[in-house]
Predict the 3D structure of the following.
Amino acid sequence: VRIGRLVELEVEDPSQVGEMCEKLLANPLIEDYEIDLIES
Amino acid sequence: VKFGVIRFPGSCDEVDALLACRRYGEAELLWHHEPDLRGVDTVVVPGGFSYGDYLRPGAIARFSPVMEAVAEFAREGGRVLGICNGFQVLCEAGLLPGALLPNVELRFICRQVEVIVDNPGTPFTRACVRGERLSIPMKHTTGRYYAPDAQLDAMEAAGQVVLRYAPGSTDNGSSRDIAGITNERGNVMGLMPHPEHAVDPFTGSTDGGRLFASLAGVPAPEPVAA
């Protein structure tokens, strides 16, 4: 198992997070990701 | 031929690449922040750690102004050679298929390796012959080439696998021993080993010069006698 990374972001509009994962935060060809939304 | 070698913050092999290119043609550095390729006809994306590579190798560089210009240049058929980190950048940018994973042993590997020319019919390898062995160094932690099997089959059928590590030459775990590939059109190539570090007889091998000579359309260097 290779441990990846945990990225914490404060965002105004959580609807963009999926696209951020697809385009930058993960490379979907070689990495999986999960999004946990925490309301503050 | 006029080569342009990109310099990102964190690049480290751009000067060697520049000097290698200058053995075979004109060459100048291109700054990452300029979306202008200054009329060059071949782009080299060099090795190093672009923007620190903290997130994932090549992940940030693909969004740089110069890479937008490189993507457009490649779409128009311009020749682009990515070496090591440059290969990672081109994969992240979607200009090459697949991705580079950490070496299977998770360790940095630095050694002279032999790669076998699988396809001498590209602009990058036309000074080579099929089956020829090139002795060039590799030095990377994230160089295990990966693509899904169906894609690898299609790439092999289309001649996109250009270089493979000779048996026993590396243990980075690359799929099908792949060391270098092109895109479907054949105008963009990436490889993990460093041909720019093998152009002067002083280093023991000039085999890397064959790739630069291919691009420049000039005679390849004579091999260094063993």
Chain A has one helix and no strands. Chain A touches chain B through eight residues (CB under 8 Å). The longest helix of chain A spans residues 17-25. Chain A has a mean pLDDT of 90.
